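tool_call: predict_structure(chain=1)
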Amino acid sequence: MSDKIDDAVCYSAGSAYLSGLPVVVAGYQMPCHGIFSKIEYMEAAIKNAELQPEDVIVVMESGTFFTGVDINPLLDRFIAQSAATPEELDALAVRQGRAMAPLLLNAEAESSKATILEHLGGCKPVYEDAYEKVRKYAVAHPEHKLALPFDVSRCRYLDSGVVVARVWAYKDFSKLANNYVYTQILESTVKRGWLTDQSIYIAFYLDLITWEVERDVFSMPMDGQKVARSSYGMRAGLLGLDYTNAPLVIGIETYLTRSELHDEQWAKYLPLDGSKHPHSRSITRLRTMTRFVHSLYKRAYAAHGQGIYARRAVPRWIGGKRASKTTHITFTPPLLTLKQTSIDTSSNKGRTYPAIFHSGGLEKAQRRESETKTAVISTQWFLPMVYDPKAKRQAWKYLASAPLFLSTHSSIIRDSYYAKCGFPFEGMIKKLKGP
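tool_result:
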């Protein structure tokens, strides 16, 4: 989402296309009205695209790009397990983990400070208070078999950088959010922390899971559950967090310390003398990242040549329109991963390779842009462009053929990606190759 075309939008849209996903820029040339603007942008885009209530949308900010990791398994699971209509919503199944909430937000390992929680006693205590109420209810009502995913995942705090939702559920939320913003948020509250829509999601989510157990909603007859509403007017089970997939890495320095570049997925391509080389590298310094990636690529390519590449089918575009056939983009194995923790090792979880990088919470656009460009080194579609002229030419021609859909207040404009953005990755390619 963005009201203008800048480097952040070009990186986001370009990464989506190179990962095989078409994209619409919501909010183009629309005025910004503060924390509710993202929701207004999406409402207009949904209307312009004539989406149906059961359709699925993925909502992202402009400072977000796709790493190349396949996001389709998450989307397929969401389509299969989320309610396509309000009538199908089963709140108990959602909280048991048998279904997914129709409005799903990413769960993150840290809680952003730029939210209302900072003047409500701090982020973690407020979450913990709500989680403790759910725990006590689960003990008192074992017959409901509630899952407690926040106790088995290091990612237990809400982040609104990426939202996956059924259209009907998003519309439900937007109506409630609109009322909440304009009737209950005072100017003084905004100054103390209501900087983004994330504050709205947090308020609604913590209130919802608390209300569900305090009102014993899960013991109600199904008809009673369907008409019950939280104190903010939300349906039981409407809003949830994805504790298990962790598709998102947030680009804030304190969060990036929990992420790294790791060669685990490259191991089969590396020579046996790999023990003398480091297996991981921090992603906070461009110079050290560049050295690590350059060494890794050279060793793998020397041993296996183009065998390190994979080819992924992506939609073909002709004259700005999607064709029936596909084309292919060259990929390397993934590099960007979340550092493993005691929770991961105790439950025998492997490394998580996020599909999305989000430069969230950074007030200075210049710093956000710099961080995004640095992290792009870790993507699967970028390295082939650096070292293989054919792969670079292939990516360039593909982006030159792609449209750029811009959703305004009343319509969707079909423009040219190349006309608006050119080839935005050229600068980082030169940086990584060096003099």
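agent: The chain has two domains: 72-246, 253-404+424-433. Proceeding to next step.
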